[in-house]
């Protein structure tokens, strides 16, 4: 994958912490306007189509239970998928990590004699950083999703699960196309841009013999694979080439064909606010005369089994990648996806990315949330993202040294709270300590406009009311004394 | 009845008027207040920041202070939600059967303040008078965890003289989020900016809520920007009476 | 070596789940999943068809409702409206539906570029879902292999009223028997919302879709 305009690759193990990235991105008025507009539009559409289904909550419950059941029997369903897919003429591979997966893809592409491949958008291929590996092997990958095409031609990174080029507007896209497709007279309506993309890509669809895809669902019962898409590039890549290589996390498996009755209802409504997305493709292995002659599935672990072993974290694997949480998130709304330093951004990114990194990196992400719960409300499979965030914060803290300043401060605070006397003493000390910072204003009210150290984060953007002279409990005690008046 | 008050650590220290208002309202309705002096903190700050082990003793303290209460009122929806959502699990982690049982018995008696009025006592009109233009911000924990619904609004509508105006985008988080407000101060401020804009658009004199944590954060910007709009806890509106000084 | 990765992953999963226990056989546990949502609607067929037509028109499809005898005329009218005279047919398409005056070629193993040379494709369909306005094609006679209904710019599709179901669960039930066939759900011409969230029609795949709804 080519590097972003900022020069830094989108790699959670090296990305700057969220507060730093966010700080820079908050300055990007263009991105902020686009993100606000886009999330408003999708949220409104979602509200309407969800409102049409009186049984929406029942569907969410079914979705949650399907995913829970799947994870409980994940080994069985993966084995069943492998057997069924193989029986139908597919070849199933297993990859423990990103490196193994990349090696398998490159090997298969080479065996197919490919020096170029067409790709359907796949978060999984981004996660394993496939494109640089293909390029290094002399194989040129062409992204065929319009947004991914925009990203690839613009040498950028996706900022949203479903609408990766959310942070770009049509003028920026037009510039990229004019330059990279050599179209000096390109118009600037969205339709003009789409038509340009259509022509540019059609040539590739009709010509390139090897395709790489992800998968939305792997159906254990039948060995089938389901891809959910809007533009038709998926159908092109799945149907016209001779060789198809599909990479899917082991969490993509679903038990039975029938389970699509739930998932194909909740996914489109949550992702793009449509009753159904334009195209769904379901195919099973190899079908003579229809589609690729050679079909490979790579089942990817890449820390998913570790996440599965974490009782509180495993529900993260239930995610069906709809992106509704991103659209609902008031933090994402301000920062966009790049602030998360990962292909998985927003609320799901805040819990999935650090866990995929086995908690060694991306430790700032679980804190990139005000715990408002809007994500949980819209998640079609009821992942309790706030609870997982809290769990991961605990995991982050456990890795801190006892001498970490924050850890020390929290320990002391905990000790203070464990005793009434210490608590009252702390209140008195606090009042004294802040006194020099208090400025009396017009009506005698005390305000603080500056705080030192990390507390300065508060006063950078807010004032702070000075502590009152009397705490509630002091007032209560005075009140109970004989002769006291019930002053307010 | 005798109502036990869990004031919360930050209300005790920073917003005593809120507690005084709760006392006034409940006494006006004919109840007596009990204030266990040993109370400190529910443990939310520790739990939410990832210091779960440090929060456990605070559960034990809360239970020790309140286990004999008939009803516990908490003028903070985030603290009440914290206890309801996490105390059972925390008690399990501590592992003492008696504690687990006490928590199970006690929690249904622990109410957020507005909830105590509407669901506990079944009252909406508490005899308040507050002739000002006010808008209401539903704090996230009250909205999504406690599901307070329109309870606080019904209480506000019953206040004589009030000019209650709806807040656009009310359900959007104000950006406080506890330590988030400091650890991610800039994003917190960006979120706050939209909330302040919505408040200013209502032309209200005051913004109210069931949580002084949100209000402290909102007030911080309203004051910094010299908007002249103030914040006031729901309890203080309900405590206001006709004879009060403005 | 491939086997090693497989064993490591499967073993990792088993260990991760060890604490949960699996008291029930897998099928019984699957059956416990609550499906309290609507599986079907008791809607009169006329209403169902009206909803389907409405949804299809939302996708800018021309929809003609005809009886069996009117299919041939209907095809002619739509082809004239689209100025399409050279149409591809999948193998097994009923010849008696074809109107005179147009060129229909039954495809047999054409490559993508050859398919691209036709104005459009005429197919039957497996079923349609009224609630979502979706049409489902499978690789069977009359519907053909996927490339045939993908590459041409115009798709004219026959839907039989008896094949119209109300909901997605009903559709999956009907498809269960042929679940392993190459299957495509079409819900409007392809669209993208990637440019400023405007739904733009016709990126790839047929940009134009017309439907003949055949009522007996």
Describe the protein in words.
- The complex is a heterotrimer of chains A (488), B (246) and C (216).
- With 488 residues, chain A is an alpha/beta fold.
- Chain A has helices at 18-25, 29-51, 56-72, 74-87, 98-111, 123-127, 130-136, 146-153, 170-180, 190-207, 233-239, 260-271, 304-309, 324-328, 330-335, 346-356, 374-378, 385-398, 405-417, 420-434, 456-461, 472-480; strands at 91-95, 116-119, 140-143, 210-213, 217-219, 224-229, 243-249, 253-254, 279-284, 294-300, 438-440, 446-448, 464-465.
- Chain A has 2 domains: 20-305, NagB/RpiA/CoA transferase-like (Rossmann fold, 3-Layer(aba) Sandwich), CATH 3.40.50.10420; 405-480, no CATH class.
- In chain A, the strands form 3 sheets. A 6-stranded parallel beta sheet of chain A has the order 1-10-7-4-2-3, with helices on both faces.
- In chain A, strand 11 (438-440) and strand 12 form a beta hairpin.
- Chain B has 246 residues and is α/β, with parallel strands linked by helices.
- Chain B folds into 2 domains: 2-121, Glutathione S-transferase Yfyf (Class Pi), Chain A, domain 2, CATH 1.20.1050; 133-239, Rossmann fold, CATH 3.40.50.
- Helices cover 53% and strands 11% of the residues of chain B.
- In chain B, strand 7, helix 12 and strand 8 form a beta-alpha-beta unit.
- The two termini of chain B are 31 Å apart.
- Chain C has one domain: Rossmann fold (3-Layer(aba) Sandwich).
- Chain C has a 6-stranded parallel beta sheet, with helices on both faces.
- The termini of chain C are far apart.
- The chains are: A alpha/beta (488), B alpha/beta (246), C alpha/beta (216).
- The interface between A and C is large, with 99 and 74 residues.
- Strand 9 of chain A pairs antiparallel with strand 9 (183-186) of chain C, so a sheet runs across the interface.
């Amino acid at each position: 994958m080519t590097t972003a305009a900022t020069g830094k690759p989108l790699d959670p193990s090296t990305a700057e912490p969220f507060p730093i990235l966010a700080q820079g991105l908050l300055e990007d008025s263009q991105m902020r306007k686009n993100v606000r507009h886009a999330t408003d539009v999708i949220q409104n559409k979602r509200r309407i189509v969800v409102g049409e289904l009186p049984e929406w909550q029942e569907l969410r419950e079914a979705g949650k239970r399907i995913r829970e059941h799947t994870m409980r029997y994940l080994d069985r369903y993966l084995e069943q998928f492998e057997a069924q897919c193989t029986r139908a003429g597919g070849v199933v591979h297993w990859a423990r990590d990103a490196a193994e997966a990349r090696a398998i893809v490159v090997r298969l592409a080479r065996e197919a004699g490919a020096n170029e491949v067409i790709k359907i958008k796949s978060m999984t291929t981004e996660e394993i950083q496939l494109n640089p590996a293909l390029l290094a092997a002399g194989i040129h990958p062409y992204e065929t999703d319009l947004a991914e095409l925009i990203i690839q031609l613009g040498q950028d990174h996706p900022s949203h699960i479903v609408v990766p080029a959310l942070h770009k507007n049509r003028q920026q896209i037009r510039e990229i196309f004019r330059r990279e497709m050599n179209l000096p007279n390109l118009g600037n309506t969205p339709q003009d841009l789409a038509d340009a993309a259509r022509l540019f890509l059609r040539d590739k669809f009709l010509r390139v013999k090897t395709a790489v895809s992800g998968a939305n669902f792997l159906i254990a019962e039948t060995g089938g694979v389901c891809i959910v898409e809007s533009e038709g590039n998926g159908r092109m890549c799945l149907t016209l080439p001779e060789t198809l290589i599909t990479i899917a996390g082991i969490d993509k498996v679903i038990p039975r064909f029938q389970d699509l009755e739930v998932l194909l209802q909740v996914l489109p409504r949550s992702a793009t606010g449509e009753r159904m997305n334009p195209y769904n493709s379901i195919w099973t292995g190899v079908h003579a005369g229809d589609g690729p002659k050679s079909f490979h599935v790579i089942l990817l672990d890449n820390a998913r089994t570790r996440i599965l072993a974490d009782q509180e974290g495993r529900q993260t694997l239930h995610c069906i990648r709809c992106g509704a949480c991103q659209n609902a998130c008031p933090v994402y709304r301000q920062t966009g996806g790049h602030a998360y330093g990962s292909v998985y951004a927003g609320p799901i990114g805040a819990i999935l990315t650090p866990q995929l990194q086995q908690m060694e990196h991306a430790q700032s992400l679980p804190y990139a949330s005000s715990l408002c719960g809007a994500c949980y409300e819209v998640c079609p499979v009821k992942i309790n993202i706030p609870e997982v965030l809290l769990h991961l914060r605990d995991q982050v803290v456990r890795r801190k040294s006892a001498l970490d300043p924050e850890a020390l401060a929290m320990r002391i605070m905990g000790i203070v709270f464990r005793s009434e006397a210490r608590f009252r003493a702390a209140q008195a000390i606090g009042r004294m300590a802040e006194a020099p910072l208090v400025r009396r204003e017009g009506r005698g009210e005390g305000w603080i406009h500056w705080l030192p150290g990390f507390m300065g984060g508060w006063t950078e953007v807010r004032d702070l009311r000075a502590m009152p002279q009397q705490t509630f409990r002091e007032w209560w005690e005075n009140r109970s004394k004989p002769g006291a008046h019930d002053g307010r | 009845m005798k109502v036990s008050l869990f004031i919360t650590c930050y209300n005790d220290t920073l917003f005593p008027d809120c507690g005084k208002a709760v006392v006034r309202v409940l006494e006006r309705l004919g109840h007596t207040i009990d204030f266990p002096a040993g109370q400190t903190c529910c443990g939310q700050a520790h739990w939410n920041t990832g210091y779960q082990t440090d929060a456990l003793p605070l559960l034990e303290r809360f239970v020790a202070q309140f286990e004999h209460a008939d009803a516990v009122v908490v003028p903070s929806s985030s603290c009440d939600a914290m206890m309801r959502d996490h105390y059972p699990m925390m008690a399990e982690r501590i592992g003492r059967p008696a504690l687990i049982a006490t928590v199970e018995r006690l929690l249904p008696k622990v109410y957020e303040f507005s909830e105590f009025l509407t669901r506990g006592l079944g009252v909406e009109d508490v005899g308040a008078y507050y002739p000002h233009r006010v808008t209401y911000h539903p704090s996230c924990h009250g909205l999504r965890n406690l599901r307070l619904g329109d309870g606080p609004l019904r209480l506000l509508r019953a206040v004589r003289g009030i000019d209650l105006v709806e807040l656009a985008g009310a359900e959007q988080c104000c950006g406080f989020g506890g330590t988030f407000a400091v650890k991610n101060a800039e994003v917190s401020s960006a979120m706050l900016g939209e909330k302040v804009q919505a408040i200013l658009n209502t032309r209200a004199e005051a913004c109210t809520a069931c949580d002084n944590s949100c209000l402290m954060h909102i007030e911080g910007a309203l004051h910094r920007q010299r908007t002249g709009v103030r914040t006031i806890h729901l309890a203080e509106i309900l405590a206001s009476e006709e004879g009060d000084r403005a | 070596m491939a086997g090693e990765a497989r064993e490591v992953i499967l073993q990792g999963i088993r260990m991760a789940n060890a604490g949960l226990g699996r008291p029930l056989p897998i099928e019984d546990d699957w059956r416990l999943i609550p499906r309290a949502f609507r599986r079907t609607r008791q809607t009169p067929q006329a209403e169902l068809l009206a909803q389907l037509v409405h949804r299809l028109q939302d996708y800018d499809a021309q929809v003609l409702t005809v009886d069996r005898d009117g299919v041939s005329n209907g095809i002619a009218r739509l082809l004239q409206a689209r100025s399409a005279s050279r149409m591809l047919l999948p193998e097994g398409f009923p010849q008696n539906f074809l109107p005179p005056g147009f060129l229909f070629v039954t495809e047999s193993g054409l490559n993508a570029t050859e398919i691209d040379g036709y104005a459009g494709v005429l197919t039957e369909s497996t079923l349609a879902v009224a609630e979502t306005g979706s049409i489902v094609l499978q690789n069977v006679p009359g519907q053909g292999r996927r490339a045939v209904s993908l590459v041409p710019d115009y798709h004219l599709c026959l839907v039989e009223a008896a094949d119209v179901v109300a909901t997605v669960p009903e559709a999956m039930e009907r498809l269960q028997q042929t679940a392993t066939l190459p299957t495509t759900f079409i819900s409007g011409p392809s669209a993208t919302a990637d440019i400023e969230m405007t739904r733009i029609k016709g990126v790839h795949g047929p940009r134009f879709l017309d439907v003949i709804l055949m009522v007996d």
